[in-house]
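User: For a reading group we're discussing how well predicted structures match intuition. Take sn-glycerol-3-phosphate transport system permease protein UgpE. Before you show the prediction, I'll give you the sequence so everyone sees exactly what went in.
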Amino acid sequence: MTTRRFSFRPLAAAACGLLFFLPIWWVAVGALRPREDIFRYLSPLSWRTLWPTDTTIANIVMLFQSDFTRALFNSVFVTVVAVAFGLILCAMAGFALAVMRFRGREFVFFLIVVSFLIPFDAIALPLFGLMLDAGLQNTYIGLILPGIGNGLAVFLYRQFFLGIPKELREAGVVDGMSTFGIFWRIYLPLSRPAHITAGLILFLFQWQAYLWPLLIAPDTKYKVAAVAIAQFTDNVEGTQYNLIFTAAFFIALIPMIIITYFQKYFTSSVASMGGKG
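Assistant: Thanks. Here is the predicted 3D structure of sn-glycerol-3-phosphate transport system permease protein UgpE, as structure tokens, for the group to look at:
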């Protein structure tokens, strides 16, 4: 007769998950509370702290009647365009580094690896100077360009393409395919997990960006959602925490849904690219 040992790991995982979930839940609760109740039940703590008693959708109505609607549209538009063009560019770069032979290939790959190890904030000001000289301040192009080339996405594509059997490429050459034809008709269709994972990387970089949009697009017409939240602190009525909580909830909700849906592809892609050199 065997006895089963009790494991604390599931309890620890559940507790850790709960700690991460509580701030999100509190933001969601704050979005449904009247303005005067946002911090009302913080001291002393009670069940009302994490559960609204007087719910209202007035915050949501007010939020989407403000300029935040335009900012949210800007965020969605900039992110979609950056992901679309970024996937094409990063996939082509990853293919070149994995398949094509040219002088200095390893050095180029080294530079790409180094590029995603450097925080973007460290190069934001020099990059802003270049964009300013090019006349790209307060333009969608200025917002989108830094998000298209992502070193981590290129690295991921390169590692994934290394795992595709070279016999498929050789068969394409026998059939008379060009290098681009091999890339487009053989490698891309086989790389769905890599596309999704690279897309998530590009999406998160662009969606959560704050410093760069703040620098390059101060005009209200081009302001993105992450920056637009600040408008609720500069108000004659004081800080509108109810609208801040509501806006933060919508900004967090969209990536939460997308990442949850594509999580299995991200896991499989990361697992498949390990050990390839």
